[in-house]
Structures are given as C-alpha cells and as structure tokens.
Amino acid sequence: MLQTTYIREHRDLILERYKKRNFDGEEIINQIIKLDDDRKSTQQALDAQLAEGNKLAKEIGQLFKEGKQQEAIAAKEQTKTLKESGVLLKEEQNKIAEELKGLLYQLPNVPNEIVPPGKSEDDNETIFEEGDIPVLHENAIPHWELAKKYNLIDFELGVKITGAGFPIYRGKGARLQRALINFFLDQATENGYEEVIPPLMVNEASAYGTGQLPDKEGQMYYMPEDNLYMIPTAEVPITNIYRDVILKENDFPIKNTGYTPCFRREAGSYGSDVRGLNRLHQFDKVEIIQIQHPDKSYETLDNMVEHVKGLLNKLELPYRVLKLCGGDLGFTAALTFDLEVYSTAQEKWLEVSSVSNFETFQANRLKCRYKDTGGKMQLVHTLNGSALALPRIMAALLENNQTEAGIKIPKALVAYTGFDIIN
RNA sequence: GGAGAUGUGGCAGAGUGGUCGAUUGCGGUAGUCUUGAAAACUACUGUACUGCAAGGUACCGGGGGUUCGAAUCCCUCCAUCUCCGCCA
Predict the structure, then answer these.
(1) A70 φ/ψ angles, rounded to the nearest 5 degrees
(2) Which CATH architecture has domain A4-104?
(3) Secondary-structure class of domain A121-422 per CATH
(4) Is the distance between the Cβ of A51 and the closest atom of strand B smaller than 7 Å?
(5) Smallest CA–C1' distance to B47, residue
C-alpha cells in the first residue's frame, strides 16, 4: 500500500510509472487526494468538537466539586447538542476512512525506473543466460513419466488421498526432495540468512500485511472455523515477523530463510501447464527474505539474485534471468527478477524463482519502520525470493539428467542424497 | 473443552469514574563533574493524525457500550497464567 503523503507529493511520477503496468491510476489517485482532503477537514471539525467537549467535561467536574449543582446541570445540557453533532462527524469520518482505504488497496506498487514497459510475459527482458541445454538420448521422456518409471512420485495416489495437485513423493524421489531442501537451506545459511520454521497457517492480519488480502482470497486455502489461511508462500509468515516492529539502523540487513510447504488453490488453472510437477496445490519451497535500509535495497536485490544463480550453477541446470516487464510485475512489487530453468523434455522454460523488491509497499502495511539518524520514523524496504521452489527444479533435474543408464544426480547434491544415480 | 485470574509506555510496576498520556523505579539519550571510566547529579526520553506555530485530537490487549467525563464500570472477542479434562 502506498502512503497518502507519498501519493500527494509524487502524483505525476506515480502516474507516469503506472504506464509501465498499463495501469491507469489517475481517477483513483484524484479521488484519494480529494478524500484525504475531506478526511482532514472532517477530522479538524471533529477534533474541535471533542476539544470543546473535553473542556466542558472538565468544567462540569469542577462545578460538582465546588457544590454548584445547578450550574453543573445547566452545563450538562450544553453537551447534548455537541454530542449529537459529534456522532454525525464520527460517522462521516469512518465512512471516509473506509472509502480511502478501499481506494488505497486498489493501487499497485510503483514500478522501478528500470522496469521495462510491457503487456505480458512476452515482454520480459532476458538479462542473463547460463549453461548449455543438454542433448537428450532419443528415448527421453518428460518428468512425469520418469517419476513413474523410477517410482519417484505417485500422482494418482495423491489424488486418492487428497486430490489433484497433491503428489506423493516416495523412495529416492522423497529422498531427492529432502536433499534439495537441505541443500538450499544450507546454502542460505552459509550466505548469512538465519533459518526459521514458521507456522503454515496465518491469521487475517498477516495475510493483509504482505498483501495477500484483500483481493487474493481465492488463491489461499481458508479455514473459516478458525479464521486462518494456509500460507501460499513462506514470505507471508516470515515477513510478518517484522509487522509492528521498530528497527534500529544497525539492525540492517535482516536476513531470514525458511523452508515450508506452500498451498495454493490455483483456481482456473488447466492444460499442459498443470501436467506433472508444473503446477501443484501443495509444493515445497525455500524462501529467502531481507529487511533492508531503503538506500541499500537494490544492492540487496542484486545479491539475492546472485544467491539464486549460485544455486542453479551448483545444480548444473541451464537457466536464464528475466527482468519482469510492467505488465507481468506483481501487484506489490517494484522490481522483480524471475529465474527460469530449461526443461529439456518439455522443451520449455520453467519459473523456479522470483526475486522482488517491494520497497515500502509491504512495510507500510506491516508498519515496519526504523528511526533514521535524525530520529525520524521511516519505512523499511522488504525483499524476498524463492531459493528455490522445488517441483520444477525436480522436474528439470529428472529430465535434463536422464541417460540410458538412469538419472544422474548433480555432484553438489550427492552428499545430501547419498546416491549419485537413480536407476 | 470446563473453572478461575490477569492484560497499563522498552522492561518492572502504581493507578477502581474527573486536572491521567498516565506516579515511581530500571533502562536509554544528552549534559555537569573526572586525566579517563564508574558513581553521583541535572534535563530529556511513546506513536499517529492535524496545525506556519502555539496547540488540538486519538491511543492504557482489540472492538462496542454506559456517562457531562472511563485506564478505571458493562458487554464481547483475543492473548497469557493457574487448576481440571483430553492429547502428539
């Protein structure tokens, strides 16, 4: 959520940047500014009334103390009309505040200057590529067939237990999955991230804090009985650690990592995109998040991308880094880099990580601030990234490393799997 | 799940209807003193909105209510603690 004062001061810049998203915010922003004016004037009127009421109340108290009953009762009469108009003003005030909030929730984050304009993922910029696409033997098959052939993942059994999109990993498949999780966590820890194991369900306040609510209810599983949401990503519980927190300048940067399963309803998804591991309702992911000083957050964003690149290098997977265009940029992000690995048997790129700087957009909702050297409260910048999302990594590993003799495990993982080939 | 108790500023802990945004102690910041440090002393020390400013308003777990006036009374939700039940 953008701050009202920021909107007032940077109206034109915001509107200009919104063009990168193909988002026309002019009307909303004009309304916001107008409503904010209303808010101020109503507040002033209300404050004046309350001040008058407070003054009278004090006088009445004084009169009672002095035993001047008559005068006190007379003064009480005065407060009546004051109270009535006060109630009206209060209602007005609430209504305005509500509307204002509703509008503020509709404004996406302001894209960074370097975000390329564009309509869809086709307009994303490839800024880096690494690794050669392997040439597979002629009997090469996609990962869902490999999973079956080597008894690594049972999709049908998952359907029986729960439903589509909840696979069961077994044997070396389960072991490989666990190996990846541990590998990713160890790598993050080596890079200075503190590991946390957060709750897998969050309350409403947390879902609002990172921007899942309002609007994205449909993406999350919800337990009405307890008013809790299953997390769609570890970003939600981990970033919310810093909700309502005031940091010191020397606390920066805060670095956390965490492994969690992620739950997504993915309503409306269909087709070849959901085949095998490509899109699931439950999947594993290791997330990295940082809370950073606004002056350093872009440097940090680069560091995080480098970290993820390092993981892919060690896994020896061919990958590319994309700078997302405005049209593909998430609602809450100011700048995002996606990392995609090449799935050789499917002959397509699969997104395995998304690394974003949210600047103050989340911090404003989270009320995560720090005192600057001048003693003023400032919002922090929040960042996060997948490092990494497991299923598509698994898919690419299985497909790209298949040989007539079996599936080879990259060297970096062997210490974690305990085997170097699946056959 | 049942019964009871509690929820105040960074922490501890006063405050049971009126001048309380809140006594006090600790902590923190600045200063005096000192060669330096400690100690002692002095001052300052919550957040947000609003105003050029002086100031005003709101906030004592959240929400609502009673009252001229609420941290203080009532309702409700949440959290914590104790006891009982259940249980990985």
Answers:
(1) -55, -50
(2) Orthogonal Bundle (1.10)
(3) alpha beta
(4) yes
(5) A377
Residue pLDDT, tens place only, A347-400: 999 999 999 999 999 999 999 998 887 778 899 999 999 999 999 999 999 999
With beta carbons less than 8 A apart as the criterion, state whether A296 and A320 touch. no
Domain assignments of chain A as residue spans, ordered by start: 4-104, 121-422
List, for residues A60-75, the tens digit of each pLDDT value. Answer: 887 877 777 777 787 7
Q: How does DSSP assign A291-312, residue by residue?
A: EE-GGGHHHHHHHHHHHHHHHH
**Residue whose CA is minimally distant from B18 C1':** A61
Q: Indicate the residue type of A354.
A: S
The C-alpha atoms of residue A218 and residue A230 are separated, in whole angstroms, by: 12
- For strand A246-247 and strand A369-371, is the pairing parallel, antiparallel, or unpaired? parallel
Cα separation of A217 and A54, whole Å?
43
For residue A118, the tally of other CB atoms under 10 A from its CB is 19
- Phi, psi (5° rounding) for residue A139? -95, 15
Distance CA A245, CA A35 (A): 29
Quote the tokens at residue A179. Answer: 């190996």
Assess contact for A258 and A181: CB atoms under 8 A.
Answer: no
CB A56 under 7 Å to nucleic chain B: yes
CB atoms within 10 A of CB A306: 11
The separation, in Å, between residue A246 CA and nucleotide B32 C1' comes to 32
pLDDT of residue A363: 93
- Rounded CA-CA distance A203/A215 in Å is 16
Q: Which of A198, A255, A263 is nearest to A382 (CA)?
A: A255
CB A212 within 8 Å of CB A229: yes
A81 class by beta-carbon count within 10 Å (0-12 exposed, 13-18 middle, 19+ buried): exposed
CA-closest candidate to residue A349, choices A388, A320, A325? A320
Which residue is nearest to the C1' sugar atom of B55, using CA? Answer: A51
- Classified as helix, coil or strand, A345 is coil
CA–CA gap between residue A117 and residue A20 (Å, rounded): 4
